Amino acid sequence: MLLVKTAAELTAQISELKKNGKTIGFVPTMGYLHTGHLSLVEQAKKACDSVVVSIFVNPKQFGPQEDYAKYPRDLTRDQELLSAARPDILFAPAADEVYLPDSAVRQLRADEKLSAVACGVSRPGHFDGVVTVVARLFDLVRPDKAFFGRKDYQQLRIVQKMTELEKYPVEIIACPIVREPDGLAMSSRNKYLSPEQRRRAPALQLSLKLGAELLRQGKSLAEVKLAVWHTLQAAPETLVNYIEILRRDDLSALREYLPEQTVILAAVYLGNTRLIDNIEV
């Protein structure tokens, strides 16, 4: 695995791979890796000749009161984890390598409809930062396929839309959520949880399973959202950020449950830590 820290060196490495006819798989991350990230690398290695992983904590997708400064960073730890997964290139740039001070980086806007719900309501501007950095990384890596986890479901749909609108020749591969044995979706932010909070955290996934079962039983969307809300609010230190029941493909509002076309999205604060999860129904 080659560690690359500058855009110029990455460009040279990518040009060499392209010259040799290699297909490139790309796994963009913000670091502090876990098994979920490594599963994306595994998928990329199966599908492509060469794999690039990026580690970049993107300042453009954090709001003024969010956790950019304290977001977990440990490049040495991440390199050790990746050494077993064996990607070809680890791109770990500083911010001024991604957003070059002497060149104009396109500032993209996330699709208005896709970003008008769920996380987009409580994190204004967040998805603009996401699509801006993903586009910039696509310009640098020039991947054939890019691998994203389904835990960040809204982000996945927004990146898919951006890729389509910007006409990037990149296939977006949606990969399954990887969970802890007790059901908690793996996330770098899980390290913020105290031992007691960590014990309670699987309630988020359990509440979504309850919501899915109630939908299948014929309960109304309003009844399901209320049941999920009550289940989550009953847990100590838990504040519900949102619960949304939406159409999978375009995150539009539903009037009733549509089997195999519906997703339940939820976000909660457990203490000061924000957790998100979803279930497709």
From TrEMBL:
Catalysed conversion reaction: (R)-pantoate + beta-alanine + ATP = (R)-pantothenate + AMP + diphosphate + H(+)
Any one GO MF annotation of this record: pantoate-beta-alanine ligase activity
CDD domains per the UniProt record, alphabetical: PanC
Major localisation: cytoplasm
Tree of life domain: Bacteria
Residues binding (R)-pantoate: Q61, Q155
EC number annotated for this UniProt entry: 6.3.2.1
GO CC annotations on file: cytosol
Enzyme class per UniProt: ligase
Annotated positions binding beta-alanine: Q61
InterPro entries for this protein: Cyt_trans-like (IPR004821), Pantoate_ligase (IPR003721), Pantoate_ligase_C (IPR042176), Rossmann-like_a/b/a_fold (IPR014729)
Keyword entries, A-Z: ATP-binding, Cytoplasm, Ligase, Nucleotide-binding, Pantothenate biosynthesis
Binding site for ATP: 30-37, 149-152, 178, 186-189
Keyword Nucleotide-binding set for record: yes
Role: Catalyzes the condensation of pantoate with beta-alanine in an ATP-dependent reaction via a pantoyl-adenylate intermediate.
Remarks, miscellaneous: The reaction proceeds by a bi uni uni bi ping pong mechanism.
Subunit structure comment from the entry: Homodimer.
Protein name as catalogued: Pantothenate synthetase
